[in-house]
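During the second half of the funding period, the structural biology subgroup turned its attention to how the target accommodates small molecules. The most pressing case was adenosine-5'-triphosphate, which had performed well in the primary screen but for which no bound structure existed. We therefore specified the complex as follows and requested a full 3D prediction, including the ligand pose.
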Amino acid sequence: MEPRPRHILTIRDLKTYFPVKRGVIARTVGYVRAVDGVSLFMEKKEILGLVGESGCGKTTLARTVLMLEKPVSGQILFSGKDLSGFRRHELGDLRKRLQIIFQDPVASLNPRMNVLDIVTEGLVQHGMVEGNRESHAARLLSEVGLGRDALYRYPHEFSGGQRQRISIARAISLRPDLIVCDEPVSALDVSVQAQIINLLLALRERHGLSYLFISHDLSVVGYIADRIAVMYLGRIVETGPSGDVMETPKHPYSQALLSAVPAPGVHRKKRIVLSGETPSPMTPPPGCVFHTRCPKVMPVCRREIPKETVSGRHHVWCHLY
Ligand SMILES: Nc1ncnc2c1ncn2[C@@H]1O[C@H](COP(=O)(O)OP(=O)(O)OP(=O)(O)O)[C@@H](O)[C@H]1O
Ligand SMILES: [Mg+2]
């Protein structure tokens, strides 16, 4: 995948493994292959939804993009620049342009800091406060739908949705290009989820942001994302425009995931229940990693890793195509 000028992010054959240690001398007995050869790209202003079951490696992929985990191999190009070529202290400016919002704002907001300090911490660090710190913070809060009265309050005084708004204000404070949203609405009530999603969409328009939007909830991703990437056991099995992936998923794994999404008004597809457990990411199956659970498995799937098949903007890694 060649990086194009309009790509904000290009990931090539990325692998992130965690050593598994046993015994008193903590000998390495194997590796959890959390991310195992992922290639992806994101365009400027694009929302890429990343979906897949728990443990498939979504958070690890995001943390690697944010340089919070060190990959064992592969490349991450951000705005065309290779992140692995930078040392930590050189990353400052680049790091500013990449921000994250977590699922649990209770854990990600320091309970001892008031909202003013939370949303201006990065601005102060980077010497980016415009005018008076309070009025800068109040402007950020108004962007996320909170009033000036929030400035001197502490995280525990807010509801879950309001806390997520504070996290968003903090994330946009440094005027990033890309925000990784790791399950940002999963802990919220459905009505609050919709408000936060609409806020994220409005901020994308206003600031030309890109989001890598991680969720296990396909109906949320189908609503917010321009394109969807489906992940299984450390690999991407399918990517494509949201409408295509939601309506005509090609990979049997995507088909199974989607068959579980309630679709009101539409004739409900038959639910595909996958047999068996997800294999351990320490010992992924040979060939196609999904073959042990695939309802359409063929002999070749047990031997050969499927290559990418492209039709238009829809990509799939499956021997059926
Ligand atoms: N720091 C770590 N050390 C060892 N193993 C890890 C570490 N972080 C994640 N893993 C393992 O890597 C795999 C992928 O985990 P990850 O958290 O990326 O999945 P996920 O798709 O985000 O799951 P969820 O939907 O539950 O958040 C899992 O098997 C997990 O146990
Ligand atoms: Mg996760």
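Two results from this model are relevant to the next phase. The two ends are 20 Å apart (CA to CA). The first strand starts at residue 7 and ends at 22.
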